[in-house]
Amino acid sequence: MAQDDLYRTVVLERARTPRYAGPLTGADRHGEGSNPLCGDRVKLQASVDAQGRIAAVRHETRGCAICAASADLMAERVTGQKPAHVSQLHAELVTTVETGIAPEGLGDLSVFAPLHRHRSRIRCAMLPWSALIEMLNDDKDR
Amino acid sequence: MDQTVTGPTDIAGSLRRIRADFPILSQKVHGKDLVFLDSAASAQKPRQVIDAMADTMRTQYANIHRGLYWMSERTTEAYEAVRDQVAAFLGAGAREEIIFTRNSTEAINLVAHSFGSLLKPGQVVLVSEMEHHANLVPWQMLRDRTGVELRVTPITDDGALDMDALERNLSDGRVALVAITHMSNVLGTITDARAIADMAHAAGAKVLFDGSQLAVHRRVDVRALDADFYVVTGHKLYGPTGIGVLWARREILDAMPPFLGGGDMISTVSFERSTWASVPHKFEAGTPAIIETIGLGAALAYIESIGFDAIGAHEEALTAHALKALGNVSGLKVIGTAPDRGGVISFTMDDVHPHDIATLLDRNGIAVRAGHHCAEPLMHRLGVTATARASFGIYTTPEEIDFLAATLEQIRGFFV
């Protein structure tokens, strides 16, 4: 079978045994995103500290391996970050999946670069990020 | 098409020649031979269709029904000849009963708007649990516009229509229209259209069949089915996109108001009022899909040259082969096991997500559909969020199915 560099070990591992899955005790932020085209759904819970940084985030993902791994890697990456940095990461990931070229410093998130050849799957990886950005924006609107 | 393949012979011997008619089948995907198993979404096109459309544009294209010159007259003849072809293809009583639409969805919307406008609050439109969104959403919109009731008949656990429940749903005599698929795009289930029509008529209801899937695989005879409405779409019939068909009984069409207004559908127009053309033109406002209609004609001629006896035998053999081959894949579960079924097979494989299955199959050149297949309520009924679906056409080979099964086994090993 043709191997696919999209389904690298980190993606399969994070989909199979996520490190940031489940509910978050003491969460003060709740978000959700769903993809009506495929029925995938990501629920997010987070707590934000006094400095506005994401202290902790957990996800409950019902979706494909790409979506589940993306949610888990996202949770890991945004922990301790402020919303402005999350937006920057989000923008860098969008560029990465659109072009197939990951900027330096993107780390594990660069595993999604091959999505530029699977354009119909880009939304799978971006669903957790859209939910997170929306959750943080809702927070700003309060 | 070479006439030597005509007749009720096994299609398998002609498969090489049929495949040679489809230029796309020689394409490579990710460096692999294309294995196209998504014909239920849209079928590939033979060169006869491609050539008929291109030749029309190259040699005689002009608008129809109004030009007083050679090109327009020739194109009008070619366009209207397809109406005769479709009438014969569906077993219609008269050519005027054939209305060209954009696709099945538009045909059903036409009925929902026009026939639907004749319905009164309290009357019922009855659909089934396994409808494509195309045969559900237009009726929901009609319900919200007019106050008719929308009723849903369940399916059995194996994916067949629950005929006892249908009978019960018809029993209060308020059902004005039964609108049901003739073949499920998810489960492959073929419904007993004649029995449904008899039950509907006994209860005083009209009946519409969504034949989008079925008309590709079996001979349709709308009069033998005793249908009132029947819809098909060209792009699944190896024809182009943008052309579909509504067939309905002449007396029903005569009683229905127009759907869209504009040119071609009128008899006289003044600023005060307009009067309508007779059927079929009453329902064909504006310049139609001329080239696509001519392409549909070429597609129907192609199908007829092979014949439904051969197509049916090929598909039956392929489906039996596929159910066996897929049944041997570890963790694979076929969704839908109705006794009468066609070459559309939905499945899940352990907890590997259908999207991951589809992407990894694609990397091996295999095209399948994955998702809810425009049938979300059915997915809920089945207790799944999505399935993968392999569907077959006249060009599908047993070797392609074996390759699918072997690749699925490898994909499973990748995840589990």
UniProtKB/TrEMBL annotation, chain A:
Residue span, NIF system FeS cluster assembly NifU N-terminal domain: 7-95
GO molecular function, one term: iron ion binding
InterPro entries: NIF_FeS_clus_asmbl_NifU_N
SUPFAM superfamilies registered for this protein in UniProt: SufE/NifU
Record Pfam families: NifU_N
GO BP terms: iron-sulfur cluster assembly
Top-level taxon: Bacteria
NCBIfam families: SUF_scaf_2 (TIGR01994)
Protein name: Iron-sulfur cluster assembly scaffold protein NifU
UniProt organism field: Komagataeibacter oboediens
Automatic annotation (TrEMBL), chain B:
Residue ranges constituting the Aminotransferase class V domain according to the UniProt record: 35-404
Principal EC category: transferase
The species this protein was found in: Komagataeibacter oboediens
GO molecular function, one term: pyridoxal phosphate binding
Entry keywords, A to Z: Pyridoxal phosphate, Transferase
Pfam families the record matches: Aminotran_5 (PF00266)
Alphabetized InterPro entries for the sequence: Aminotrans_V_dom, Cys_dSase_SufS, PyrdxlP-dep_Trfase, PyrdxlP-dep_Trfase_major, PyrdxlP-dep_Trfase_small
Required cofactor(s): pyridoxal 5'-phosphate
PANTHER family linked: CYSTEINE DESULFURASE (PTHR43586), CYSTEINE DESULFURASE 1, CHLOROPLASTIC (PTHR43586:SF8)
Protein name listed in UniProt: cysteine desulfurase
Reactions performed catalytically: (sulfur carrier)-H + L-cysteine = (sulfur carrier)-SH + L-alanine
Family statement: Belongs to the class-V pyridoxal-phosphate-dependent aminotransferase family. Csd subfamily.
Annotated GO biological process: cysteine metabolic process
E.C. numbers: 2.8.1.7
